[in-house]
Amino acid sequence: MDVQLKRGLLEVCVLAAIKNEDSYGYQIIKDIKPYVELSESTLYPILRRLEAAELLTVRTVEHNGRLRKYYHITLLGIKRIETFKAEWEEIMSIYKFIAREDVINDKT
Amino acid sequence: MTKHEFLLALSKKLAALPERDIKCSIDYYSESIDDRMEDGLSEEEAVAMLGSVDAIAEDILSDPSVSEYTPRSRDLNKGLKTDMYTSADELSKGKARRYAPRTWNIILLALGSPVWFPLLLAFLVVILSLFVVIWAIVISIYSAPLALIGSAVLGVSAAFPLAFSGSTSEGMFTVGIGLFSGGLAILFFHACLYATMGAAFLTKMIWRGILRCLRWRK
Questions:
Q1: Which residue of B has its CA nearest to A7?
Q2: How far off is chain B from A107, nearest CA to CA, in Å?
Q3: pLDDT in tens, B21-31
Q4: Whole-model pTM?
């Protein structure tokens, strides 16, 4: 897959992972794992970029005597997910057309 | 590799970055290791799962947004279009391009100068007069012991002609007054020293306050 495309997709993935409740790094990876492989080193720059673009905020919480960073989605982040879903609708209908063409070609 | 060895090696590779970024990266990976260990992995396993230090360091160093991130006000987000192929780093870079040009700042500064320049002058004059007032008070405090020393000298020197002209009692009285003034002068002088130290302290505090204001503006 195109690197830029995958990066963009993973960013929205991470936002979706924290949409309903705040989460932390390892938990985000575990949540996304059934759908797409995501490593710590891939996630880190994504989180930094999302924070820089103010699509999420970070807070530090104490957990078992150490500090853990929790990520919280912002309104802008939620909007980003909605935009993604809307644009993806369009892509899905284009894909349906392309796939339909394949079926016709296969028949002949 | 132990957790400590891993983090130490990583921090060495990231040494070129600003301290903030190094700390952020170390905290993140330290947290990853701790979370994995909490899940049941051993320290060695948790570290091994992260991959090589070199690869991680390279990822961090090559990512443009890592050193570019500065907090921006929420208003800047409005009106910036996002689409599926605009990843977040392009979004933050776009903002930087919109608001970075220094020339615009200089133009605005020049246009506004009829307003802010006289205000700045007025402010400087007020500060200057504050210093003048403080030191004027100190100087006037000094005038007390000076005057007393003057009378001490005069008193003692007047004693001799008076003594020779026969009015010894007046002479002794004058000497007495003169010596008394001298004593007072010494006392006042101590007060002067304290006043000077106080004034110097005030001056330093005001100066620091001004510098702090300037730094806050920047």
A1: B87
A2: 34
A3: 899 999 999 99
A4: 0.52
Tokens of B55: 């690869």
ipTM entry:
0.85
Between CA B47 and CA A24 the distance in angstroms is 18
Lookup result for tokens 């991959």: B51
Put simply, the answer to whether A44 touches B28 (Cβ < 8 Å) is yes
Q: Give which of A40, A61, A70, A91 to mutate to test B binding, by max B Cβ within 10 Å.
A: A40
Residue pLDDT, tens place only, B159-198? 777 767 776 777 788 888 888 888 888 888 888 888 888 8
Q: CA-to-CA distance for A92 and A46, rounded, in angstroms?
A: 25
**Rounded CA gap, A7 and A43, in Å?**
10
Q: What is the pLDDT of residues B59-102, one digit of tens each?
A: 888 876 655 544 443 333 343 444 333 445 555 554 444 555 67
Q: Using an 8 Å CB-CB cutoff, list chain A residues near B36.
A: 26
Which backbone phi and psi does A23 adopt, to 5 degrees? -145, 175
Report the alpha-carbon distance of residue A76 to residue A56 in Å, rounded.
8
Choose among A69, A33, A66: nearest CA to A51.
A69
**CB contact (8 A) between residue A8 and residue B51:** no
Q: What is the percent of chain B where pLDDT is above 70?
A: 80
Convert B5-32 to b/e letters by CB count within 10 Å (16 or more is b): ebbebbbebbeebeeebbebbbbbbbbb
First to last CA, chain A: 30
